[in-house]
Amino acid sequence: MKIKLIGVRGSLPTPSDNKEYRNKIRNILYRAIDKGLSDVTQINNFINNLPEYLQFNYGGNTTCVTLTSNSGKLYLIDCGSGLRTLGDELLSTEFGKGKGHLKVFITHCHWDHIQGLPFFKPIYIPGNIIEFYSPYENLEENLIAQMNSPFFPAPFNGTASTKKFHLLKEGEPFKLEDDLSVDFYPLKHPGGSFAFRFKEAGKIFIFATDAEFSGETLEKTGNHTDFFMNADLLILDSQYTLDEHFRKFDWGHTSYTVAVNCGVRWKVKHLVLTHHEPSNNDEKLKNILNGAIQHRNEMKTKEPVIHLAREGMIFGL
Ligand SMILES: [Zn+2]
Ligand SMILES: [Zn+2]
């Protein structure tokens, strides 16, 4: 399966501001002094060798991730503001002709996880089929509510695509394809949230945000250990530093330090830190990545490999 990150910011869409943009230009030009860049190839090589936080923006769109199965079918996890760009891209595929079929998994209904849906053009095209899967009996009601007047001009039920809702049941892995299944696990978060675990051809991908793990909850062994063990790829809420988590205990998010502890404890191969705090710019996020790697190294282990979620990032399993 292939996993692509479309939105990685937590809580609120966060465009980078002009101050950060100018700081990046200054920092890049400073590094270019004396490099003698005189043609496009040299410039491209220079860019490709910059630190990641200068080569890219980590991204300001809220949570949205796609999974493409080995058979080529497309699945979506959460409908944050990243969904708008995905919808625009899909218009050149069968979704633009009203022949698209998408299965969507929703972790919970906080705004940052559903706010992209009203701007997802394929839902307005007749013939497209959008199927929603979640453990929430009231998911349809909640998606209708966010598009009701006066909050949005077009009502959810007025959109022309066909929408279907499916309730996932606890403890029953749901078969999506012959060799692709999904199950879920409840997370500590205000109002609740669910982690989804996808299994295909012996590979495991787990998506877990918004989630508050602490040293104390991690110490308790139990069902969560069974659910999270041995993932090939775990995308995990890491919104806070440890200090921020102490100040924001019970706000429903994990510190990057504890996220690394989780990844090590659960023998995860690749750990992706996500749901970035809106007040953190790319330089601060870079420091969080470095801090997370250092923390793992201090635990005398090379696994998991740690990544910082960035829009456009792709993982193949
Ligand atoms: Zn969130
Ligand atoms: Zn939330």
Task: List key phrases describing it.
317 residues, alpha/beta, seven-stranded mixed sheet, 10 helices, 24% strand, binds zinc ion
Quick description:
This protein has helices spanning 18-32, 40-48, 52-55, 83-90, 139-146, 215-219, 223-228, 242-247, 256-265, 282-298; strands spanning 2-7, 64-68, 74-77, 101-105, 129-134, 162-167, 174-177, 180-187, 193-200, 203-208, 233-237, 270-274, 305-308, 314-316.
Describe the protein's architecture and organization:
By secondary structure, this protein is of the alpha/beta class. It is built from 10 helices and 14 strands. It has helices at residues 18-32, 40-48, 52-55, 83-90, 139-146, 215-219, 223-228, 242-247, 256-265, 282-298; strands at residues 2-7, 64-68, 74-77, 101-105, 129-134, 162-167, 174-177, 180-187, 193-200, 203-208, 233-237, 270-274, 305-308, 314-316. The strands form 2 sheets. It has a 7-stranded mixed sheet. A hairpin with a 2-residue loop joins strand 9 and strand 10. Helix 9 (256-265) runs parallel beside helix 10 (282-298). The relative contact order is 0.15. The model has no long low-confidence stretch (mean pLDDT 95). It binds zinc ion (2 copies). Residues 10-11, 63, 110, 112-113, 210, 275 line the site of one zinc ion.
Extended strand count: 14
Gyration radius, in Å: 20 Å
Q: Share of helix among residues? A: 25-40%
Largest sheet: 7 strands, mixed
| SSE arrangement, N to C | EHHHEEHEEHEEEEEHHEHHEHEE
Overall mean pLDDT stands at 95
Spatial sequence of strands, sheet with the most strands: 6-5-4-3-2-1-14
- Ligands (ions, cofactors included): zinc ion
Number of helices: 10
- Dominant shape: globular
Query: What proportion of the residues form beta strands (DSSP E)?
Result: 15-25%
- Separation of the first and last Cα atoms: 5 Å
Regions with pLDDT < 50 over 5+ consecutive residues?
A: none
